[in-house]
């Protein structure tokens, strides 16, 4: 296998080869697959180290699941994926956002309206829900065997079970019985900063990186001394590959490996699922309906506890939008049904809350359906009960040639852009150590 830098840089994939050539020294090239936060951070680390690399991305844009969607109009831009800088005290994106002058709000400062079965919740119902959440943290701590969030919450009774369902679906995008309580307990906590245009910030921060868009990795051959990556635009050869695609894509088998991935890696992948956190943005004509008069957020639930809890962001950053947030199996069904059905369903739910005036004001809608996105296959990774150690297992290099990275491997920062960024940097440093660079 020819691993010289010249043969890689002259390939048809490297559309920005002159910039890449000027930024690197001679040495074995590294291919980074995926230009989400992890891949971008990995490529940037390699660039700063002066090492030859190629960054490929299946989509026609960078950022992955950090994406500011402008399809409803410039005045209705919204973050279809990540929108919060979690654990901001140590998240690398907090200082980046502040330096860029991003518009930021601190989560938890808004009044929220709770409706149950389409009516305002009673004082007793509010008290019941508060009681369920107030004791939940104490219940969701590892105690012996790695249980599910549902099993751990059951000890606290019906109120805690209901709260656990809301937490799992609206925070993790998954049903509570499918989430490891030990993994959840390891996640970092801290302040949450709501960023206006998180996806745009990620894309802008890494805009100078050379990347081959529309380039889909179809196979990885690591049988030789180096690695050969098969793509829809031809093969790439490298000394090593940093693979940052979501674990949902890896688990689906859309990338062929030769030889097959080690059993330990396959087992770890089986221990991780993908949550189905979903958003449906509704554009409303401000001349027909003033969303600002409604309040900042509305949570609509059902009294029977079924998977129908929807959190509506009203006029986020003063834009004429109502954005429905939901997760779990109900969100999967909505994604599978398609955008038209999803927009109609959320319009119905909004009208049930605000009346037909709101329905008549809806002028467009957009489904951010990561569950059915072939390059994501879910919103973010979730460790299944009994598999809390799966993330760590995936961080180990495969034959010192294949390095996995991404939000799924992000330690306590898993499921976040910050965690993906830190893990991309980790993987790049690991490759450089192996190659002696």
UniProtKB/TrEMBL annotation:
- Residues annotated as coiled-coil are none
Enzyme Commission (EC) number: 1.13.12.3
* Pathway named in the protein's UniProt entry: Plant hormone metabolism; auxin biosynthesis
Catalytic activity line of the entry: L-tryptophan + O2 = indole-3-acetamide + CO2 + H2O
Where would I find the Amine oxidase domain in this sequence? 187-432
Which superkingdom?
Bacteria
Record-linked Gene3D superfamilies: FAD/NAD(P)-binding domain
Question: Which family is this sequence assigned to?
Answer: Belongs to the tryptophan 2-monooxygenase family.
Task: Kindly provide the name given to this protein in its UniProt entry.
Answer: Tryptophan 2-monooxygenase
Question: What InterPro entries has UniProt attached to this entry?
Answer: Amino_oxidase, FAD/NAD-bd_sf, Flavin_monoamine_oxidase
Carries keyword Amino-acid biosynthesis?
A: no
Which gene is this protein's source?
A: pao_1
Protein source organism: Methylobacterium trifolii
Record key words, sorted: Auxin biosynthesis
Q: Name one Pfam family in it.
A: Amino_oxidase
């Amino acid at each position: 296998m020819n691993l010289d830098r010249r043969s890689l840089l002259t390939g048809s994939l490297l559309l920005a080869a002159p910039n890449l050539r000027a930024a690197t020294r001679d040495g074995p090239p590294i291919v980074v697959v995926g230009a989400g936060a992890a891949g971008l951070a990995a490529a940037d680390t390699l660039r700063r180290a002066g090492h030859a690399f190629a960054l490929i991305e299946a989509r026609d844009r960078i950022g992955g699941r950090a994406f500011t969607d402008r399809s409803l109009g410039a005045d209705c831009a919204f973050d279809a994926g990540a929108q919060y800088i979690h654990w901001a005290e140590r998240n690398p994106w907090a200082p980046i956002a502040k330096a860029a002058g991003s518009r930021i709000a601190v989560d938890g400062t808004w009044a929220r309206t709770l409706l149950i079965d389409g009516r305002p919740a009673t004082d007793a119902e509010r008290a019941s829900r508060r009681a369920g959440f107030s004791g939940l943290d104490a219940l969701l701590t590892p105690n012996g065997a790695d249980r599910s969030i549902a099993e751990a919450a059951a000890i606290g009774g019906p109120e805690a079970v209901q709260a656990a369902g809301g937490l799992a679906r609206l925070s993790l995008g998954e049903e509570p019985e499918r989430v490891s309580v030990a993994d959840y307990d390891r996640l970092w906590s801290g302040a949450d900063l709501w960023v206006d245009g998180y996806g745009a910030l990620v894309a802008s921060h890494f805009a100078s990186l050379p990347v081959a868009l529309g380039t889909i990795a179809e196979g990885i051959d690591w049988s030789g001394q180096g690695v050969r990556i098969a793509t829809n635009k031809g093969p790439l050869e490298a000394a090593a590959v940093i693979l940052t695609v979501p674990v949902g894509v890896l688990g689906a088998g859309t990338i062929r490996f030769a030889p097959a991935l080690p059993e330990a890696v396959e087992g770890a992948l089986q221990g991780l699922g993908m949550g189905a956190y979903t958003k449906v943005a509704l554009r409303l004509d401000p001349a027909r309906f003033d969303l600002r008069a409604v309040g900042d957020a509305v949570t609509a639930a059902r009294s029977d506890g079924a998977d129908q809890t929807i959190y509506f962001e009203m006029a986020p950053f003063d834009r004429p939008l109502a954005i429905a947030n939901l997760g779990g199996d109900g969100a999967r069904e909505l994604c599978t049904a398609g955008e038209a059905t999803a927009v109609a369903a959320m319009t119905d739910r909004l009208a049930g809350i605000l009346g037909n005036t709101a329905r008549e004001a809806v002028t467009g809608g957009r489904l951010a359906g990561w569950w059915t996105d072939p390059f994501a296959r879910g919103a973010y990774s979730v460790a299944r009960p009994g598999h809390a150690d799966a993330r760590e297992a995936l961080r180990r290099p495969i034959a010192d040639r294949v390095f996995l990275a991404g939000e799924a491997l992000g330690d306590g920062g898993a499921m976040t852009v910050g965690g993906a960024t830190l893990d991309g940097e980790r993987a790049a440093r690991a490759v450089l150590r192996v190659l002696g660079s």
